[in-house]
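Notes from hallway chat w/ T.B., transcribed later so I don't forget. T.B. wanted the structure written out for a chain they're using in a teaching module, and asked if we could keep both sequence and structure tokens in one place. Agreed to drop them here.
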Amino acid sequence: MRVAIKTLGCRQNQYESDGLLEALRLDGQMRVGPGEEADLFIINTCTVTKEADADSRQMIRRAIRDNPSARVVVTGCYAQVAAGEIASIPGVDLVAGNGEKIRLLELIRGLAEKGPPLIAVGDIQRIRTFDPLPPPIAGSRSRAFLKVQDGCNYRCTFCIIPETRGPNRSQAKEAALRDLRVLLGAGYPEVVLTGIHLGTYGRDLPTRGSIAGLLSEMLEVAAPARIRLSSLDPHEVGEDLIGLFGRFGNLCRHLHLPLQSGDDRVLKLMRRAYKAETFRRLVERLAEAVPGIAIGTDVIVGFPGEGDAEFENTYKLLEGLPIAYLHVFSYSPRDGTVAASMPDQIPKPVKAARSFALRSLSERKWHRFRRELLDQSLTAVVLDRRDARTGHLEALTDNYVTVAFDADETMVGRMVDLTIEEVSERQTFGRMRGV
């Protein structure tokens, strides 16, 4: 079969899409690119907001319209919570939940030639084991994702993800190291560790592991290839993890620490497990311990009950800290969450104004962070991507800066040393050492 796949949402979904394609490749199927005719079209959906649901439905209908003879399979988080709604879309052949991704190939083989769509969505809350997909050794990316954790035991009032992903489940350390070696053997210069709640890695294992313990062993195995961490909650970053930056040069100087709000009352309404001061102390400690580290964060503006004073607390906290960039989200009520029925919902114009203020702050911070890198030499992974203005290839530094530089396609997927020569408001340009 000629297989096409479309992925919406987070890095976890990206990893799982790559794993599904790897499983299909090992079965003798062939991936096709955008615009090519497909016999099988898989949509890996997201449901983090109502807008994500709408995007997923739009993608499903587009796939059916553009591939009228293809079998259409829908999986992912939206499929987990809205199987009946998806199955009612004419042209859908299979709806598979997150727990069924591991046996998606078996389900596809069992599809009848004609008939109503098959719904295979189990109770994700009953799953207690980590079920890995094959590591994607034949992927088209310059960097590899490696999922080592799934699910979440927290119950933030704005979040539907525990309902779509189930409880915390960790991959055994030996299995994670085995998958890492497979990816390294395939030649990836960088591996990004992912999880729905990566900081809780190991808590469910008989040996009670930790993300810092797993990471220390992975860094030994990976060198000289580097490892990057995806999001970690602020209260889950301890001195054991911070110490790894000093011990291992192949740990990327980049951490994404979701704050969500800089006001303690709002954090309590969100059921976040830390206070603003926890975040402040951690960011200051990281900036002191790891020179050049890029610290990013997520912020939700307009959460129910966030008044002007609460927003000002968030703004001032972030303004005064060495944060490199912000991902800013306007709160959107999500059916099935506690916050959707909270009083004091914030008007859209107020949310838009607060979002604009924080996005502007983020742009200034990101420009300042990159300007501090001028004339420095940084190691970067060359991406299969070109700068739209100059046509130059782009590379990603360990501290998360995309640098455009002059090179040909033979450099894609390699590690290079770049000297930062120019920084504009939106772009960074460099020169390869020796050129």
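Follow-up for T.B.: Residues 2-123 form a domain with the Rossmann fold fold (CATH 3.40.50.12160). Might be a good example for the class.
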